[in-house]
Amino acid sequence: MVSRTPYHNVWGWVTRPTPGFIWLFTAFLCVFVVQSIFQLAQSVPVTTFNEMFGLSIAGIQKGYVWQLLSYGFLHQDIMHLLLNVFLLYLVAYEVEYQIGVRHFICLFITGILAGGLLWLGAEHMKGGGNTTLVMMGCSGGVFATIFGFITMFPERPVGLLGGLKAKYLGVVLTTIAIYFIIFPSNTVAHMAHLGGILAGIAYLKILSYQWRVDIGISPRKTGNARRRTERSVSRTEFINEKVDPILDKIAEKGMSSLSDEERRILDEARERLSTKRVA
Known about the structure:
With 279 residues, the protein is mostly helical. The protein is built from eleven helices and two strands. A hairpin with a 5-residue loop joins strand 1 (157-158) and strand 2. The radius of gyration is 22 Å and the shape is elongated.
């Protein structure tokens, strides 16, 4: 069993607030305050805030195309908001550390757009569906971020799930979404979840391909090129698995206890951390 370092928590990886997460959380909170104020004034004889900015077939038919994005910043109630924020927080640090703030936000937005489009298509396929039904919530973006994490770290064990690997958690979440799409039993928009899942996987696959092209690695990699690719996409893994145990050893026995190989790893870690990361 792998011992947990000070940088790991009960989930098995690092969870900390990041600039991208803080930006999204602040946006959610501000919108929720405005949304709550409007909900207290429902007697006003104008289109309600939710009808204007939540996603619906009727709204899109009226030309409210911004709903494809704005619905992701609205929530039914405080518990709905807190659940989505908590799930996003669990994977925000690991994902944003790897791909940078800009791609982190783009990944999240892509999940919202994909979830909204898939949900609209499914409702339309029902013969027009309920045109006044309004969807709210950032679950599409949250699922995109979660599956971005799973795509990058498929072998990562999830501590609170008995060490279940991330890739198997992805299978479970996808199965649940598909099951409730086929056999709907609640008001949760599982089609939006599926859109987020597909968006998260696709975004990271495309991004990984772009990274390989940018650093000039051909499909037939040499040994050194393969190692460069591995280093470019697994810096957090390297720190957690290689560097942290050495730091623990230094804290316990001092620098003199290190072997030549351990000193080499520290030198490599210093070089990686001093290199500017492209966001």
